Target: YqzG/YhdC family protein
Amino acid sequence: MVHPSSQAAVQPAENWERLAYTALQDEYEGAALNDYHYIGRTQVNEDQTKDVFRVTVKEGSTRFAAHAEIYFHPVTGHLISINIFRL
Model:
């Protein structure tokens, strides 16, 4: 059961923004990252909330979109995992 008073609502996306961007830089080292923006938040279950960030990656002449997904505990705010993937 998800409680409306959950702390996830008070955990601003800005808390995870720098971490997501750093993970994208590490994954696509040397590439240009453009059009970085916050996609949104999803409560996965009672123990996990997900914030999603999107960026356009330019590696040489190749350009593609990538996502960073940050999973965290909605009450404690502890980081659970970071997933980076190409779209």
Q: What stands out?
A: The chain has one helix and four strands.
